[in-house]
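Regression test case RT-17, inverse folding.

Input:
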């Protein structure tokens, strides 16, 4: 997978976790268990995605 595609996917994945209104942001309002609907059956894919992300960061 090319670096630009990895960045595009990471951007899409991280969007729900962005803090857009810093003045009103309260960490206590965030659910630490949020998985965006991913379950334990997705764990192997998540490990692979993590490794790809680490490699992309190393390249950057």
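Golden output:
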């Amino acid at each position: 997978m090319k670096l630009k595609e990895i960045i595009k996917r990471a951007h899409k994945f991280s969007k729900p976790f962005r803090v857009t209104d810093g003045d009103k942001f309260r960490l206590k309002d965030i659910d630490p268990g949020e998985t965006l609907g991913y379950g334990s059956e997705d764990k192997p894919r998540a490990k692979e995605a993590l490794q790809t992300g680490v490699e992309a960061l190393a390249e950057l």
